[in-house]
Amino acid sequence: MTRPIVVGVDGSPQSLQAVDWAVEEARLRRLPLRIVHVALRWEYSAEAPPEPGLEASRPESAALHVLELAQDRAADRAPDIETSTALGIGHVPTTLLEEASDALLLVVAARGTGAFSGIMLGSVSRQVAEHAATPVVVVPHHPDPEPRPAEVVVGVDGSEACMDAIGFAMEEAALRGVGLRAIHVWDHTAYPPAMRPASYSELSVEQEGARVLSESLAPWKSKYPTVPVVEQVIQGRTPTEALAGATVRAALLVVGARGHGGFPGLRLGSVSHAVLQQAQGPVVIVRPRP
């Protein structure tokens, strides 16, 4: 069965930018696109007179209009992509996850209105990214979006959990025909520089970071030999600062849903959630496969 790219919309300009991203991803992967709008149950239980010339009540007609606008936008950008729509009714995160249960990728806007209002800091994005079995892409809003630089960035901490993130990032780089930048962040977070142990060696840290990157990337380099890879060890910054900073120049940032070492507690609680708050470009949260 072909797995679609699913994108959540709410009618806002922000969510239409998420549609643009999802359309491009569907085109690259040659997959169908499913556009989902979720309405709250109370909107449909409330009595509302029908609009002139329409049999549907106002809330339902408005919801269908949201889907129509998004579908028209997708058709304008990629008329050759198979596109469908789905209207969900109920608890937004739960319904969105149900609609995306068979998806290869779930795309949401960083911020929106209505059901997706405050998605970056609110419950929807956190719950979706926390519980989705599929990778989740959060697309930030830019009033005048410019073409993103040609580079995919991935955070690497040497854990088993980050391996799926590396694989996803490599695949994205190969699909886009661009290079991959793998970042490992390490620092004595418990001590300021003046209080570090006498045995602290920046050279040793650099070498250990290089080893982590080399060993983590090796199997994926063999699978994607045509993707140029830059391995970067960053010291003296927090993982959040380093990764969020990378979104300024990256076409896409990929991080794992869990991790250790350079990315402690990477479960939408500390690093990954903080990166979503500060990101200036699209971020993919990849959950390890069972």
From TrEMBL:
InterPro entries: Rossmann-like_a/b/a_fold (IPR014729), Universal_stress_UspA (IPR006015), UspA (IPR006016). Residues 1-140, 152-287 form the UspA domain. It comes from the Bacteria. Belongs to the universal stress protein A family. This is Universal stress protein.
